Amino acid sequence: MREIKVPVTRIEGHGLITVELNRAGKVSRARFHVTEGRGFERFCRGRTLWEMPAITARTCGICPVSHLLCSAKAGDAILAVRPPRPADKLRRLMNLGQFVQSHALSFFHLSSPDLLLGWDSEPATRNVFGLAAVNPQLALDGIRLRAFGQEIIAALGEQRVHPAWAVPGGVRSPLTPEARDRLAAKLPEAMRIATDALALYEKSIPAWADEVRSFGDFPSLFLSLVGANGAWEHHDGRIRIVDAERTVVADHLDPARYLDYIGEAVEGWSYLKFPFYREQGYPDGVYRVGPLARLNCCDHIGTPLADEALARFRATAGGKAVTSSFHYHYARLIEIVAALERIRIYFDDPDILSARVRAEAGINEREGVGVHEAPRGTLFHHYTVDEHGMIERVNLIVSTGHNNLAMNRTMTQIAHRYLDGQKITEGLLNRMEGGIRAYDPCLSCSVHAVGQMPLKVVLFGPDGELLDEVVRGA
């Protein structure tokens, strides 16, 4: 057995990829390792339920809104209340702002240098600054689009990162008319940027044919929330699972009963859990979540421009599920358009200005599950409390964890396609990083790591001897 190790950068966190070769010098397996842990589930014990939204929001500086809103939903379940209608709409508005800012960060800042400058371009300039040098308008657009999403979050929660705003039972405050009007004035530019980027991506697809075929293109299940009548959903609804044919495997699953259909495996070589679909066992029950899964699972999005884009997206797979993880980027851009269209609807809704935004209650249940769609995928917060609301147990399943099996399979596929010989070439390194980056993983959320873990690629031979090692981002 021979093994290659590859560092990965330009993701939220750092990781390690190892590639193992057999005696014939061919790739036998590739693994994506997450090698640090800190355990939010453990140190939240003993804190109060009302602290949990603010505490879990600190899991990550990129995803605080996702954890904030999901934690508040778990609190709703323990209080046994349904937030007032304005509060539900305001939470949705903040989550849509999070979709815009997070997807913009992923596409424009982290992935566009690979997509638009080329996988074999000079590493020193294959970054957002290099992108700005050759396409300053696109780079500036990315900054402005992300800023728009962040402004929505700040207008509701008074700050862009770690807003202490959603609480069990609702939210602390509505949007002000002045903030709504200011944001509404910026919406047309945000939509122009999103549709331009979507058009650029669709025009460029033929040039990426090889990457589309080799960056995680395999049959799997897809899991997401869907709303009434199968509509695209990001904050409520029921769980649907479809296969590569887009045949519904399971539908109307109660998110609070996730343990009935999702298992969690662990491996000794990574701190990241390996969730799987129980019906198919481990590791055969591999499924994907996030933008690609949401577009494969839903019947429609429900807004005009996004539904038109969804039809084009599905045409690339003949109406079946789009199975290439490379097209996470495509799905991400469509979701930005969908989010902006829904934001426009909320700006016209007087409920977002209502002061009736919180239901008051005490501890009425000892256990609660919050589930919603973070930009990267389905997020679960599961709490058990005592009669005073002190946390006794926490279980978190985050988007990156759901995709763990798929990311590992993607690494093996890319290594098979691009590894030539026993050396880690720049082209292989870039493509393995790009394969991971397509999922937009957040290792801080997934393993709660402290500090930095540089991503490495290491190549081992059939007897375990080190053949090559490359470290990037140390």
Automatic annotation (TrEMBL):
Protein's UniProt keywords contain Zinc-finger: no
- The residues that hold Ni(2+) are C60, C63, C442
Query: Residues that bind Fe cation, according to the entry?
Result: C63, C445
Q: Which InterPro entries match?
A: Ni-dep_hyd_lsu, Ni-dep_hyd_lsu_Ni_BS, NiFe-Hase_large
Q: Which UniProt keywords apply?
A: Homeobox, Iron, Magnesium, Metal-binding, Nickel, Oxidoreductase
GO molecular function per UniProt:
DNA binding; ferredoxin hydrogenase activity; nickel cation binding
Residues engaged in binding Mg(2+): E41, L396, H448
Give the protein family: Belongs to the [NiFe]/[NiFeSe] hydrogenase large subunit family.
The entry's protein name is: NAD-reducing [NiFe] hydrogenase HoxFUYH(E), subunit beta (HoxH)
The organism's taxonomy opens as: Bacteria, Candidatus Bipolaricaulota, Candidatus Bipolaricaulia, Candidatus Bipolaricaulales, Candidatus Bipolaricaulaceae
